[in-house]
Amino acid sequence: MNEFIIENKNYKISDFDFFLSNNPMVVLSKESQKLINDSRERLNHAVKSGQTIYGVNTGFGKLSQVKISDDNISKLQENLILSHATGIGSPINDNLVKLIILTKIIGLSKGYSGVRIEIVERLIDLLNFDCLPIIPSQGSVGASGDLAPLAHMTLPLLGFSNLKFNGELSPAKDVLNKLKIKVIQLSYKEGLALINGTQFSTAHGIYASIQAKKIIKNCDIIGALSVDALLGTHRAYKSDIHKLKPHCGQLDSAENLYKLLQDSEIRKSHDGCERVQDMYCLRCMPHVHGASRENLNYLFNVVETEVNSVSDNPLILDDGEVISAGHFHAQSIGQAMDCSAIALTTLGAISERRISTLVNGDFGLPTFLVDNPGLNSGFMITQITSASIASENKSLSSPSTVDSIPTGAGQEDFVSMAPYAGRKLLKIVENVERILGIELITALQGMDYRGNLLSSPPLENVRQQVRKIIPKLTTDRFMEADILNAIKLVNNGNLIGWVEDRLKLN
């Protein structure tokens, strides 16, 4: 059965890739049920003992000194959701909404938030019935939790706002009634537990990580195609050379490139030529790709730590003590996404340099990679397109987390700005996929000018498979379909599959 079990384990990025790709039923394990129920019992005991607990029987933020009477506890939690649902901007996409809900379920299931199990079950219902809240993209500074977007996630559980169901927007109450799901009346701590946390920021990091894992392999594959198209050498990728500068990412990329070019007839055809060395965009691929690999590994590690963490406040500890801390702060995930923005921007930038080299009319290739240049412009403007996108990325990669604007009347006086880091990172991911798609069709066009010579078996398989979808450009044509199809092949990982049928990549 196609299930995603919520259990007390460390989730990996691959688990979330599986979740998005397979749309499984989410199931709460017995162990997680017990952790949730035990946590609620500990909070019940603390409340009955007469303790003053932040967000349970007090106001929020600067208003935490205001004591709330018992008969207003439920209203306090509902007011929290309504007042904090102030997000604006275009709604985020469905994949991000699903990741937000799933990571919130995982966080609450750890058993340190004190919510009733019904809260977690209603969140699971949203996923299993594929009825998704509408979450605006703007409004969180990534501290005190991603308050506004998580409040929008919560609104439908209370019968407010809309849900996306069967591809249409409908009032939440109507959808819940149709599915026979009861509207929740919040009890103490529950509204706060739902909106405290880094799930909005983390969802962006998860999705970026899923795609970045494809990008780092695609860069080596497409880069190797460009090497063959430009009659470059594989000797600069030999392992004994890179052991002299043994950065892990560099070693991995060098090994990929060397193996990808083995047994290429194109490469063998120019062995012993007079060219002494290749330009940096070829020769230094292991160093550039490798540096980005290591930076992206930092993102992957931070994302996996964050999704397996508790980012709520206050926390109900195992001994029953209730403690206010700062686990809602998204500095770690935000800073990792900022660093990854630089890494991915760099991959796009060196790809654009390879595109430029391919269309310049050097190394025996026709200018702009087309017959009868002049009458035909060939790939002239695709290089300009890639240059414009690479330049856009350079602006987007300016870090967000170095900025902070105090909020909440100074109570939240240092915030992470992680949500904007995430939004920018996903745009950079999209842009790099576009640049790589352009390099893919450009490199293959160059290879097609090398007579009947074949590339290596894995690269030749890529060429043959792509050529079934995107034919060689023989005269100018409307290239929109070519470019979009190439980008899709990068985005969905097909190129990687075609290579790894024959050669496992790092």
Poorly predicted segments: none
Helix tally equals 20
Strand order of the largest sheet: 4-6-7
Measured on Cα atoms, how large is the radius of gyration?
26 Å
Q: What does the overall shape look like?
A: elongated
What letter string, H or E per element, gives the SSE order? EHEHHEHHEEHEEHHHHHHHHEEHHHHHH
Structural class: mainly alpha
CATH architecture of the largest domain: Up-down Bundle
Keywords summarizing the entry:
mainly alpha, 2 domains, 506 residues, Fumarase C, Chain B, domain 1, three-stranded antiparallel sheet, 9 strands, Fumarase C, Chain A, domain 2, two-stranded parallel ribbon
Question: Helix and strand layout, with pairings?
Answer:
Elements: E1 3-6, H1 13-22, E2 25-28, H2 30-48, H3 73-84, E3 88-91, H4 94-109, H5 117-128, E4 131-133, E5 136-138, H6 147-154, E6 162-165, E7 168-171, H7 172-178, H8 190-195, H9 199-229, H10 239-242, H11 248-260, H12 265-268, H13 280-283, H14 285-307, E8 315-316, E9 322-323, H15 331-359, H16 380-396, H17 418-447, H18 457-467, H19 480-491, H20 494-500
Overview of the structural elements:
- The protein has 506 residues and is mainly alpha-helical.
- It has 2 domains: 3-197, Orthogonal Bundle (Fumarase C, Chain B, domain 1), CATH 1.10.275.10; 204-311 and 328-404 and 413-500, Fumarase/aspartase (Central domain) (Fumarase C, Chain A, domain 2, Up-down Bundle), CATH 1.20.200.10.
- The protein contains 20 helices and 9 strands.
- The chain has helices spanning 13-22, 30-48, 73-84, 94-109, 117-128, 147-154, 172-178, 190-195, 199-229, 239-242, 248-260, 265-268, 280-283, 285-307, 331-359, 380-396, 418-447, 457-467, 480-491, 494-500, and strands at residues 3-6, 25-28, 88-91, 131-133, 136-138, 162-165, 168-171, 315-316, 322-323.
- The strands form 4 sheets. The chain has a 3-stranded antiparallel β-sheet. A two-stranded parallel sheet has the order 1-2. The protein has a two-stranded antiparallel ribbon with strand order 3-5.
- It is elongated.
- It starts with a strand and ends in a 6-residue tail after the last helix.
- The mean pLDDT is 95.
